[in-house]
Amino acid sequence: MTQAGPDPDALDGDDSAPAEPDALEPERREWMLESQAHQQRIDKVLATLAGEFSRSHLQAVIAQGHVRLDGVVVTTPSRRVRAGQRLQVTLWPTAQALAFTPQAMTLSIVHEDDHVLVLDKPAGLVVHPAAGNWSGTLLNGLLAHHTGAAQLPRAGIVHRLDKDTSGLMVVAKSLPAMTALVRAIAAREVQRVYRALAHGVPKWSTLTIDAPIGRDPQLRTRMAVVAGGKPARTDVTCVARGAAASGLRCTLHTGRTHQIRVHLASRGHPLVGDKLYGGRTEFGLHRQGLHAERLGFLHPIDGRPLLFECPVPPDLAAAWQAALTA
Q1: DSSP structural state of residue 51
Q2: Angle at which helices 42-49 and 55-63 pack, to 10 degrees?
């Protein structure tokens, strides 16, 4: 299976962190050190002998007491070794190495056939493994759900929702379907409509935000409207107004990272609960107020039109009620 790069929605963490010790059986390796290793640091020697692991990872292995010289545990990475010593190390797979493994989980499936799967992703579920979230992701669940996922790039994932965004996603189950869906998304032929609960009450009824998005130069865990960013367009309609919040319907024409969150924050209306972009925890909502409620596309194989709608989950529904009847 092809492994994609890190998800920008999950930038924190150490990609070489050890996995849980019971995740897989450990591997034990042993060497008799030769003259070229004499008086070298033990972490440097290990990095040469076990080159598939990063030196920082091996330093952690040493500090955890999994390395022995002549049968004696060594916990200091700077320890010098001597020629003729016996070096032993116990290695568990890194968390990243375990990322692309099947993990059974309950998936809320809205539609499924031989080529596509549409699901309702709950808030809190990471879509794709990345630093800080190497397991328990939707990709892991898809690998367990059907065997064909292992033969597809990213297990058939063609677009993503942020960890704390709930709602509809389409996933390919065959390579022809994946190719067609990727092309349809790039051609802006997939309809994606979101329900958003935002701070502030806009004076406008409808608004098109056409502003490029790129990495925030001040804080790399954020995206921002920046000159030279990738083109991004969001159509916004205000469907409800409260005393200090508004209910919005957002239609994506592009799919940039954090697009709705960034666009609304740039206009002074950050999502309720979205602390990364200036939102606050209010109305009992403890995650960003965003839900993918409508998804439409042509079936990638037979061309028939498919349209799905997904009710707002209880936490957002309760916040919506509290904010917009105040």
Answers
A1: T
A2: 120
Measuring CA to CA, how many Å separate 122 from each of 102, 108, 161, 193, 228?
A: 19, 8, 10, 16, 33
Give me the catalytic one of 162, 164, 216, 274: 162
Q: 311: which DSSP letter?
A: P
Residue 119 falls in which region: left (phi positive, over 0), alpha (psi -120 to 50) or beta: beta
Dig out the tokens for 240 from the structure.
Answer: 């409800």
315 is catalytic: no
The whole model's pTM is what? 0.75
Distance from C-alpha of 51 to C-alpha of 242, rounded to nearest angstrom? 59
Q: Tens digit of pLDDT for each residue in 135-157?
A: 899 999 999 999 999 999 899 99
Among 227, 206, 204, smallest CA distance to 216 is for 227
User: Which stretches does DSSP call E strand in 22-155?
Assistant: 27-32, 67-69, 72-74, 86-91, 109-112, 116-121
Looking only at the bridges linking them, the beta strands covering 191-199 and 290-298 are antiparallel
| Tens-digit pLDDT profile for residues 224-279 | 999 999 999 999 999 999 999 999 999 999 999 999 999 999 999 999 999 999 99
